[in-house]
């Protein structure tokens, strides 16, 4: 039986041998069991000291032979005692790990006043409006639609069908800051943050370590090798990995690692577009890089340095939202209007996008659970709450830009550039422009600008006007307005959903 003296010294006494485990064991690793052993016979002061990985068959077998020879004990007795020690160390590590998981999931305990304040917020009729105001008070400047969507996406980690997000933006645009500020509104015990990922990093978490957690990736560009298991977690809600370990005597055994989901994943990238298998699982959000947003952020930064931002009030707002998250409990959501919610066929990947739309409505209903009457399934007795028309209207407001982006033939940054270009040409009352003119006006690098223009020419949004002797040319807008057509189609489709709920087609007939 193993006795823990302190974190750096364990003792185990058996009939044939006594062991001291010096330095304890590594509770984080599951594919090795490296220990430093001091071994002696119960009736002797002579000891052997050895550093060994008990999962390495060759090492352990050599150590068994050494102990047998130096301590003058039968080799079978030594081998069986070492096997018993290994089993008990495994059991100690696993039981301690389970206790740590229980403690970490228990999280912060709300006081009576904190609980009352959070319940008051969650019971507010205008809950989403108040939530949006609190997000702003916590220090998130601008980005009104993005910040609401991100907060709801992060809330979906508590449901059986979490949403995911990818935040696009150029270097220095504030995408990582936006993600971290909104993530600050989620309790720390409910999230994990990564700056880089390896291909196997997720497999060595405990079975329940990631369940209903928010996973934040600072830079998706540097996490490519870890995205495959992450995609499986997103889709299948669990990942498994089998490895062969050599035990004492050189015999191998297969060990299977299982990590359970579901998880909510959010990451940032500077790329203009990313691998389709990653993007179509997520809401694609583009940070506001407009001059108006620059002005808002610069003004806020000046206020901070002038000492005119009350950081205690910011933390108070963030803490209230974190406490509200702690009071949300898992509950089934039923949407009685789901059959009337049809998106236009022009939407990219309509099957998966349709699911995202329904899941966004689900999480809005879930967030309002303190205002909804619990009902019970007559056949199973399971509790559930129902979606309201207001939930769908709010989802329509928030998702419209996402649907537009998913339907667009241009990537987000090129579309933003085109919109900015249109505004500039309207202000100059001209249809024609050159690379040199736009580079000077917008401050865009030559290579980036040429990439934008090549794509816009290819998609027929702009065209070359004329070429000169020095191989330069000008461009002009073609007047193509398919984006406006898609915008109108999505607007009409979302409104038709509301109309069909309020006045079903069979009733109109």
TrEMBL record:
Coiled coil is among the record's keywords: yes
Keyword set, alphabetical order: Coiled coil
Protein name, as recorded: DNA primase
Species this chain originates from: Pseudofulvibacter geojedonensis
Stretches of the chain forming a coiled coil according to its record: 75-102
């Amino acid at each position: 039986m193993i006795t823990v003296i302190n974190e750096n010294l364990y003792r185990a006494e058996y009939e044939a041998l006594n062991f001291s485990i010096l330095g304890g064991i590594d509770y984080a690793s599951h594919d090795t069991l490296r220990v430093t052993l001091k071994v002696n016979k119960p009736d002797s002061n002579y000891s052997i000291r050895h550093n060994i990985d008990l999962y390495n068959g060759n090492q352990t077998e050599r150590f068994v032979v050494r102990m047998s020879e130096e301590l003058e004990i039968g080799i079978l007795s030594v081998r069986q005692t070492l096997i018993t020690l290994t089993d008990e160390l495994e059991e100690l590590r696993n039981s301690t790990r389970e206790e740590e998981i229980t403690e970490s999931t228990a999280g912060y305990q709300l006081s009576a006043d904190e609980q009352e304040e959070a319940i008051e917020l969650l019971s507010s009729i205008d809950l989403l409006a108040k939530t949006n105001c609190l997000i702003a008070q916590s220090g998130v400047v601008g980005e009104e639609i993005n910040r609401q969507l991100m907060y709801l996406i992060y809330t979906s980690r508590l449901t059986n069908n979490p949403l995911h997000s990818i935040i696009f933006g150029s270097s220095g645009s504030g995408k990582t800051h936006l993600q971290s500020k909104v993530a600050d509104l989620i309790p720390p015990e409910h999230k994990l943050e990564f700056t880089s990922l390896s291909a196997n990093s997720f497999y060595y978490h405990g079975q329940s370590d990631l369940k209903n957690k928010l996973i934040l990736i600072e830079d998706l560009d540097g996490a490519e090798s870890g995205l495959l298991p992450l995609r499986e977690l997103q889709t299948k809600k669990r990942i498994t990995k089998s490895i062969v370990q050599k035990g004492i005597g050189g015999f191998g055994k297969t060990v299977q690692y299982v990590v359970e989901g579901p998880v909510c994943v959010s990451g940032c990238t500077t790329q203009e577009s990313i691998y389709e298998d990653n993007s179509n699982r997520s809401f694609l959000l583009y940070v506001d890089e407009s001059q108006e947003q620059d002005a808002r952020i610069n003004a806020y930064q000046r206020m901070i340095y002038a000492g005119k931002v009350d950081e205690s009030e910011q933390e108070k707002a963030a803490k209230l939202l974190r406490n509200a998250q702690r009071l949300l409990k898992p509950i089934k959501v039923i949407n009685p209007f789901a059959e009337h919610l049809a998106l236009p066929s022009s939407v990219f990947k309509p099957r998966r996008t349709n699911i995202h739309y329904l899941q966004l409505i689900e999480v809005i209903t879930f967030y309002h659970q303190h205002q909804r009457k619990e009902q019970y399934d007559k056949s199973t007795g399971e509790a559930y709450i129902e979606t309201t028309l207001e939930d769908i209207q709010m989802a329509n407001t928030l998702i419209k830009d996402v649907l537009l982006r998913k339907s667009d033939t241009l990537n987000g940054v090129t579309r933003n550039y085109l919109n900015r270009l249109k505004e500039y040409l309207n202000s100059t009352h001209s249809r024609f422009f050159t690379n040199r003119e736009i580079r000077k006006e917008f401050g865009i690098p030559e290579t980036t600008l040429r990439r934008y223009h090549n794509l816009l020419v290819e998609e027929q949004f702009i065209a070359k006007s004329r070429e000169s002797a020095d191989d330069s040319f000008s461009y002009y807008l073609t007047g193509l307005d398919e984006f406006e057509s898609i915008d109108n189609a999505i607007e009409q489709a979302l409104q038709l959903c509301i109309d069909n709920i309020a006045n079903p087609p069979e009733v109109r007939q």
